[in-house]
Amino acid sequence: MTERQLTQKIDLYRLGFTKSLGEEQLKALVAHLPTPKTNRASLAGGRGAVAAPVINGLGPVVIKQYLRGGLMRFVLKNRYLKLGRTRAQAEFELLQRLRPCGIRTPEPVAYAYRGFPFYAAWLVTRKIENACTLAELSRHDDRRASRLMSKVIEQVGRLIDCGCIHVDLHPGNVLVDSSDNIFIIDFDKGYMSAKNRERIYNIYRNRWRRSIIKHGLPPVLNELLKEGLHRNGGTFNPRYGS
């Protein structure tokens, strides 16, 4: 169950959130929505543009604007047809659902969209300070990255057990902070599934392996994930405890 949502319209933006945000905080968020500057590379995370402002009373946050890929990016780079929930709302609500299950993700703060029937959308989460992706870490400290795979395996096991499909799980969507905590990011298009655990495991294993090969990352990251998740009484469990 997701928490009850509050919504508010400011200028042309409709915002959704669950915790009380003051009028000034909402206005400050809106002021940063139109122009996120930093484009994410595919290896560093999901497709989108991000900004990381500091909001009074909230602290550092990350604002992700949803951007299209493929040929459609030349026609509607940041616009989507609204047929129900926006992509930002769907990801916001999925994060809310996963965090009580022990899935480590950035804390969702708010989502926003503008326009109808074609809309632009943004997701606001708390910033993970002093973090890099597991992909980046593996390229300059593969031993540390290998040690952290036990925590990644534990998190993937939780995703499998709760029936969550992260459609783009790879080392670029795993953040590592300075205390070696790991966080899974970019649940855009993610969903809860009734597929059995083995099918979900195969989805994750295959996507992870393709990314390792495509980006030339240390093969040990793939070997550890494959070895670390195994069948045990019908449930996938980490062989390397967290």
Word description of this protein:
This protein has helices at residues 23-32, 87-98, 134-140, 142-162, 197-214, 220-228, and strands spanning 6-10, 13-17, 38-39, 49-51, 54-55, 59-65, 80-81, 108-114, 118-126, 132-133, 164-165, 174-176, 182-184, 191-192, 229-232, 235-238. By secondary structure, it is of the alpha+beta class. It folds into two domains: 6-126; 132-237, Transferase(Phosphotransferase) domain 1 (Transferase(Phosphotransferase), domain 1, Orthogonal Bundle), CATH 1.10.510.10. The strands form four sheets. Strands 1, 2, 3, 4, 5, 6, 7, 8 and 9 form a nine-stranded antiparallel beta sheet that branches. The chain has a three-stranded antiparallel beta sheet with strand order 10-12-13. Helix 3 packs antiparallel against helix 4 (142-162), helix 4 runs antiparallel to helix 5 (197-214) and helix 5 (197-214) packs antiparallel against helix 6 (220-228).
